Amino acid sequence: MEDKKPDALLESLVLELRRGTIILSVMSQLKEPQYGYSLVVLLEEKGIAVDAGTLYPLLRRLESQGLLESSWDTGSAKPRKYYQLSGYGKEIYGQLRKSWMNMVERMNKIIKE
Amino acid sequence: MDLIDRYIYAVTKELPSKQREDISEELRGLIDDMLEAHKGDQSHEDKIRAVLMALGNPVALANNYKSRSRYLIGPKLFDSYLMVLKIVAFAVFIGISVATAVGGIYSAEENIIKIALEYIATLLSAVSQAFVWVTVSFAIAEHYDASDVNILGNKEEWSLDSLPRIPQKEARISRAETITGIIFTTIFVSIIYFYPKIFAIYSSAPSGMKIVPIFNLEVLEGFKVIIALIFLIGIAKETVKLVAGRWSLKIAIITSMLSIASLVFTLLVFTNPNIYNPYLADELKGLFNLNLSFDLANAQYYASRVLIIIIIAGSLGEIVGALYKGIKYNNIKL
Question: Which residue from B29, B54, B55 is facing A79, i.e. has the nearest CB?
Answer without folding.
Answer: B29
